[in-house]
UniProtKB/TrEMBL annotation:
Segment forming the signal sequence: 1-24
Pfam (any one): Dirigent
The protein, known as: Dirigent protein
Chain's role: Dirigent proteins impart stereoselectivity on the phenoxy radical-coupling reaction, yielding optically active lignans from two molecules of coniferyl alcohol in the biosynthesis of lignans, flavonolignans, and alkaloids and thus plays a central role in plant secondary metabolism.
Length: 181
């Protein structure tokens, strides 16, 4: 076999393997609501740490909160429960308010039950829409990547309740069809 034939065969083989890799991934769009309660008997957001500087900082620098919010199918807190948004909020900017958010979207019912999507990013509350990176996942969402868009859907200051709307665009699937074990 000539040199050109071997190179051609290798190119075809590589293209076929890359095609298999691309086809092993899919894109899933998810839309849900997060019920955030910052005060009262059913509080879901709690302060767990603060630095010496936090009390005097205009940006709450050094403050750390943990979150365990209910995820629902609609904006109504009594609608179908899909799972929990669990993670932490860290105030890590000395100059402006822009907390770092690290969350796991933990699905507890439906087609994605038992699966997790991990989000990370900066939450600039002055922006109408905030964007987080999807940096991983488990279960159905193994090898996840993509992005999430969130916005404040409603605020009830008297009850300390916020509802956030989330839309996720998740690329996920097998890591590769080339090296399955």
């Amino acid at each position: 076999m000539g040199k050109l034939s071997i190179i051609s065969m290798l190119c075809v083989l590589i293209l076929a393997m890359l095609g298999g890799f691309c086809n092993a991934h899919k894109v899933t769009k998810l839309h849900f609501y997060v019920q955030d309660i910052i005060s009262g008997p059913n509080q879901t957001v709690w302060e767990v740490a603060r630095a010496k500087i936090t009390s005097n900082s205009p940006t709450s620098f050094g403050l750390v909160k943990v979150v365990d919010d209910l995820i629902t199918a609609t904006s109504d807190a009594n609608s179908e429960a899909l799972g929990r948004l669990q993670g932490q909020i860290t105030f890590a900017d000395l100059e402006e308010s822009g907390p770092v958010m690290n969350f796991n979207v933990v699905f507890k019912s439906g087609a994605f039950s038992g699966s997790v999507i991990t989000l990370s990013g900066r939450n600039d509350a002055s922006d109408k829409y905030r964007e987080y990176a999807i940096v991983g996942g488990t279960g159905v969402f193994r090898m996840a990547r993509g992005h999430a868009i969130t916005s404040t859907y409603s605020v009830d200051s008297a009850k300390g309740r916020f509802v956030f709307e989330y839309t996720l665009y998740v690329v996920h699937g097998k890591s590769s069809t080339l090296f399955d074990m």
